[in-house]
Amino acid sequence: MDMNEGVGSTYKYYTGEQLLYDFAYGLNYAKFAVEEVGSDNDVVSISTSGDDSVDINMSVTRTDEGNLFEAAQLILTAFVVPVNVTDNDDCSYVVNKMLVDFVRTGDVVEGGDAVEVGMSIAKESFALANDDGALYVYGGDFEVRVNNGVEDVVVKKVSISGEKMLVSKFPEGQQKQ
């Protein structure tokens, strides 16, 4: 694969072999456990016409023995993954995943210490570009995958309903010829 040009040259569109190290791999030297708290929903339903967002609250616990480092922080990244997008005939390419948010814990000093962190993913974060470069939120099924730099630690299924919603147009005079 030529990583210098065209679709497929970023993590968003890459369809080649499994990556050896995923985005943000190795940012932490301490060990942490992450679990979602305060949610019983298997699927979060939002609408293109409402003022909806996907809220994810997590408890992060330091699990390593002893204090190898005086204090450690964990960076969690959130990716939106389109699973089954509808009404997107004007999109030749649909991304594999999109980085939409990240959060960093405060210092976690002792093994066993826990902190709470949260993310709020706005519906506009689910927008996909059509062939003219305009961003639309389309109906369909998505996943929000929260990653700790090594693996997905929280996966939230999201169902979006309603007519496609324009988020932003590509600037005039900039459309591809």
- Tell me about the largest β-sheet: 5 strands, mixed
Domains (count): 1
Spatial sequence of strands, sheet with the most strands: 2-10-9-4-5
Structural class: mainly beta
Distance between the terminal alpha carbons, to the nearest Å? 25 Å
* Average pLDDT, all residues: 83
Can you count the beta strands?
A: 11
Q: H/E order of the elements?
A: EEEEEEEEEEE
Number of helices: 0
CATH fold field value? Immunoglobulin-like
| Percentage of β-strand residues | 35-45%
Helix coverage percent: under 10%
CATH architecture: Sandwich
Poorly predicted regions? none
Radius of gyration: 18 Å
- The global form is globular
CATH class: Mainly Beta
The fourth-level CATH homologous superfamily is: Immunoglobulins
Question: What do these coordinates show?
Answer:
The protein is mostly beta strands and 177 residues long. The protein has one domain (32-168): Immunoglobulins (Immunoglobulin-like, Sandwich), CATH 2.60.40. Helix content is 0%, strand content 42%. The strands form three sheets. A five-stranded mixed sheet has the order 2-10-9-4-5, with no helix packed on it. The protein has a three-stranded antiparallel sheet with strand order 1-3-6, with no helix packed on it. It has a three-stranded antiparallel sheet with strand order 7-8-11, with no helix packed on it. Strand 7 and strand 8 form a beta hairpin. The radius of gyration is 18 Å and the shape is globular. The relative contact order is 0.25.
